[in-house]
Amino acid sequence: MAGSCTVVTGAASGIGYAVALKLIAAGEQVAAVDLNADRLEERFRETPNACRIACDLTSADGFQFLTSEIKRNFADGVKGFVHAAGIDMMAPLGMIPADAMHKLYSIHTVFPVQFLGWMAKKPNHAPEAACVLISSLSAHEGAKGHVAYAAAKGAAEGFLKPAAAELLGKGIRLNAVVLGVVETEMSMGWIRKLSSDQLAALEKDYPLGLGKPEAVADAIAFLLSTNARWIVGQTLVCDGGHSLI
């Protein structure tokens, strides 16, 4: 494959898959990145403008493999980056293993910092590139059991503005979306454990309904596009009206 690409992590499912499909439908070349090689193959094997890259983003070897594959397949570098890969962990204080915290920080914070640093170097990025991180309302609300996940997402929001300031001088825009509850495979793991009353209360908290990956993909595609060329270093809250009630 030639030209430039948009790198989408977590591309085999959930929000990442919805973003990748939207970009591909618009004729964009996508580097579809995921830990699950079989799922990547299943999703994108018949998609000529999708380059499948299976790797572990929390490992040094995985990071090296990802960047080398991008350089090998796309001579003009990265024009877009969407970091949709992530993991969750629900546990109360006092029951959060240290290794689990390290893994959460590794995927949600360490990897994107490293990748953005790599991307900032010439010739790794295309002119007027755009990047989008994904954060969560968990970092802004007092949801019990979400301490570890909220901490990792809060750290990601913490580096947004200084990173955006550095990248801006290199012609790269960086923004983030802050999401309420979106119906993905990851979130459905705990949603299915709710009682009928708890589920009803959750749905009541979202006047426009629980989020769909496709709706989030629309917002991300906007931030990647030239229509958002005057937006940088910002967080766009997408929560179906949750914060208004």
Brief summary of the model shown:
By secondary structure, the chain is an alpha/beta fold. Helix content is about 45%, strand content about 20%.
Descriptive key words:
18% strand; 245 residues; seven-stranded parallel sheet; alpha/beta; 8 helices; 43% helix; 7 strands; Rossmann fold
* Strand segment tally: 7
Q: Identify the strand order in the major beta sheet.
A: 3-2-1-4-5-6-7
Domain unit count:
1
Query: How many helices?
Result: 8
CATH superfamily: NAD(P)-binding Rossmann-like Domain
> What structural category arises from helix and sheet content?
alpha/beta
What CATH calls the topology is: Rossmann fold
| Helical percentage | 40-55%
Amino- and carboxy-terminal Cα gap: 48 Å
Sketch the topology as an H/E string, one letter per element.
EHEHEHEHEHEHHHE
Largest β sheet strand count, sense and barrel closure: 7 strands, parallel
Shape: globular
Taking all Cα atoms into account, the compactness measure Rg is: 17 Å
User: Kindly state the mean pLDDT as a whole number?
Assistant: 95
- Please state roughly what percent of the residues sit in beta strands, choosing from under 5%, 5-15%, 15-25%, 25-35%, 35-45% or over 45%: 15-25%
The CATH class assignment is Alpha Beta
Low-confidence stretches: none
Q: What would CATH call the architecture?
A: 3-Layer(aba) Sandwich
